[in-house]
Each structure stands twice: as structure tokens, then as C-alpha cells.
Design a protein that fits this description.
By secondary structure, this protein is of the alpha/beta class. It has a single domain, classed as Alpha-Beta Barrel (TIM Barrel), CATH 3.20.20.70. The protein contains twelve helices and seven strands. It has a seven-stranded parallel sheet. Helix 8 links the parallel strand 6 and strand 7. Helix 6 packs parallel to helix 7 and helix 11 crosses helix 12.
């Protein structure tokens, strides 16, 4: 697939499991079709929302290959392939490419907290080993360290295969510095649904989204409106969806969004340890929010 600049709404897709804990391929295929018909711009299997940390290599390949098959070339498939072990990140990237992925999403290495020089070397090594575009994923809340704007800009300059960043630092100032310091072809994507509209207003390109699992078309309409300059329409949709965006993080993602999709009849309410079902009091809030949007 010939890629243009990555923009728009890109669901960070959940991975459905059956009651025995296996990947539910039937539910996965149906979910992918639902997302594609929601006018999304691309799709991300095997990210953190997809519980990728619990997938073995065979399951990982199965989810990516199934996504590629169902999408059928209509939109790019951006495979999560991150690891804090550069060799494993390369291996996952190679599997994803062989399975037909168009782009790779690589979270910055967590736990071992590399230096800035180590971050640059990590992305250089992946790019050298696998000839696919890469989106850098900065999520300090999960990794324990922030990839600063200066380092993102440096990586963008030194590793041309890194074509964008999923920014989940929550720091709009940092995001603006990245937009200012990178070229027009570099995509700055929100990693937080609730910050998508503010980021678009200052020159961002879209979002890798959790809420798009539940409301892909509405989220696509919001981003499309903003990118075309219709901020009144975008703001109206933003505030309509804001409670859902927030309740998706009332507990650790993807617990609420998988629960919501189960309540909507799209997947089973199944998780892999260490994730467990929602607390009853939080589930009540989720149900109320879904009802307010006529989703259940």
C-alpha cells in the first residue's frame, strides 16, 4: 500500500478473547469490519489496548494477519510491535511485516528507561532491520519516562522511517514543540482521546484512539470536521463524546472499553490476567454513559 501522511482517526483495537482465554477470531473479524465501516483512517492491532503484552508470538501473528486480511487493503494496518528489548522489537516488527502490516507502532522502551542516546539507537536499529514506516509512541504513564520534544525531533531527523509520533504525554506544549520542530510530512497524533480536538486546533494530525472502538464513525466525523476547519461541529461532537472518552479510563485501559464493547454485544467480556473485570461501581458509571449515548 502506498502511504500518504498518516492522519485522521486510528482505532487502537482491543483483542477479543473467548471464555477460555483464547483469541476470539470470529469476534475480531466482526470488530474490524465495524471499525472499517466507521470511516476510520487506519487501524492498530496489538497495541497496549489490544493487550499485546499477553499475546504469544503465534497469537500476535494471527491477530495482525487477520486484521490485514479483513481490512483488505482499504486502510493501512499499523501493527503495534513495541518492546523494551530492541531485539524482540525487531523480531515482532519482522513478524508484522511478513503478516502484511503497512506501518509499525513502537512504544518507547519501558522499565529499563534508556538514555536519550539509547532511544535514538533503539529506533535506528529497528529501522535498519525492518523496512517499514514507524510511529513512535510516547506514553510516560506506562513507560515511566517521557520522550522529550527535542528527542522526538532528533529521531525524526536521524531516522527518516520514523514518520510520526503518538503523543500521550498529556502535555500540549510538548506536542506543539514537536509540530514546530518537524516537517510537514511528520504526523503528530494524539494518544489521548480527550486531547484530540485541542491538538488538532494547534496543527496536529489525528488520534490513535480508544473511544473509536465504540464510536468509530462519530470520532471520525469529529476529526474530519476539525481538519476541514469546521471547529463548531467538531466541538459539538467532542463534548457529546467527552464523558465516554473519560469513562474509558475510569479503570486501567482496556478494561472499560472491552466492557463497553461487551455490553454493546460486539465481544465477550473477557480479559487476560493481570487485567480483571471492572468493579461494580465503575461499571454502573460506564453503563449510564453508554445509555446516554444510546449505545446500549
Amino acid at each position: 500500500m502506498r502511504l500518504t501522511k498518516i492522519s485522521g482517526v486510528i482505532p487502537a483495537m482491543v483483542t477479543p478473547f473467548d471464555e477460555k482465554g483464547n483469541v476470539d477470531i470470529g469476534a475480531l473479524r466482526k470488530l474490524i469490519k465495524f471499525l472499517v465501516t466507521g470511516a476510520v483512517s487506519a487501524i492498530v492491532p496489538c497495541g497496549s489496548t489490544g493487550e499485546a503484552a499477553t499475546l504469544d508470538l503465534e497469537e500476535y501473528e494471527l491477530v495482525v494477519r487477520t486484521t490485514v486480511d479483513v481490512v483488505g487493503g482499504k486502510i493501512p494496518v499499523i501493527a503495534g510491535a513495541g518492546s523494551n528489548d530492541t531485539a524482540r522489537a525487531i523480531h515482532l516488527s519482522q513478524i508484522a511485516k511478513e503478516a502484511g502490516a503497512d506501518v509499525l507502532l513502537h512504544v518507547s522502551p519501558y522499565y529499563n528507561k534508556p538514555t536519550n542516546a539509547g532511544l535514538v539507537a533503539h529506533y535506528k536499529a529497528i529501522a535498519k532491520a525492518v523496512d517499514l514506516p514507524i510511529i513512535l509512541y510516547n506514553v510516560p504513564g506506562r513507560t515511566g519516562s517521557n520522550v522529550s520534544a527535542d528527542v522526538v525531533i532528533q529521531i525524526a531527523k536521524e531516522v527518516p522511517q520514523v514518520v510520526g509520533v503518538k503523543e500521550a504525554s498529556g502535555n500540549l506544549g510538548q506536542m506543539m514543540d514537536i509540530i514546530k520542530g518537524t516537517g510537514r510530512d511528520f504526523s503528530v497524533l494524539s494518544g489521548d482521546d480527550a486531547l484530540t480536538l485541542p491538538l488538532l486546533a494547534v496543527g496536529g494530525d489525528g488520534v490513535i484512539s480508544v473511544v473509536a472502538n465504540e464510536v468509530p464513525r462519530q470520532m471520525s466525523e469529529m476529526v474530519s470536521a476539525a481538519l476541514s476547519g469546521n471547529f463548531k461541529k467538531a466541538k459539538d461532537i467532542h463534548y457529546k463524546l467527552l464523558d465516554l472518552m473519560n469513562v474509558n479510563f475510569i479503570e486501567t485501559n482496556p478494561i472499560p472499553v472491552k466492557t463497553a464493547l461487551a455490553l454493546m454485544g460486539r465481544i465477550g467480556e473477557n480479559f487476560r490476567l493481570p487485567l480483571v473485570p471492572m468493579q461494580a461501581k465503575n461499571k454502573e458509571v460506564l453503563v449510564k454513559t453508554l445509555k446516554n449515548l444510546s449505545l446500549v
